[in-house]
């Protein structure tokens, strides 16, 4: 069993997928638009080309997303997505990429537990933590 985050982007899903593809190397594995659903006549015309469901990967992790149920934006609160790059340099690159158009909550840098750690809210309101753990001492 796995836990897979399901993100709603309230009309900005395609833009978010392109951003994550460019910045994090995200790869789409499945996508369906509202116009491809069996009950397409129940979807407002302005939502026909919006994304009803998409599955994608970032590294080895699978995520899912949608433009939502044609509802107004509700935001992303109460969780963070955490990335665990292999090096501080890669962590800094990912942090800076997610910060493009976003808001830095905690600048990226070394901590007592990590070679590199930072928190950022991206331009879509998704909260991220970048955490490069220090090597385990035995």
UniProtKB/TrEMBL annotation:
Organismal lineage: Bacteria, Pseudomonadati, Pseudomonadota, Betaproteobacteria, Neisseriales
CDD domains: PhnB_like (cd06588)
Top-level lineage group: Bacteria
InterPro entries listed in its UniProt record: Glyas_Bleomycin-R_OHBP_Dase, PhnB-like
Pfam families: 3-dmu-9_3-mt
Domain PhnB-like: residue ranges: 3-130
Gene that this sequence comes from: yjdN
Protein name, per record: VOC family metalloprotein YjdN
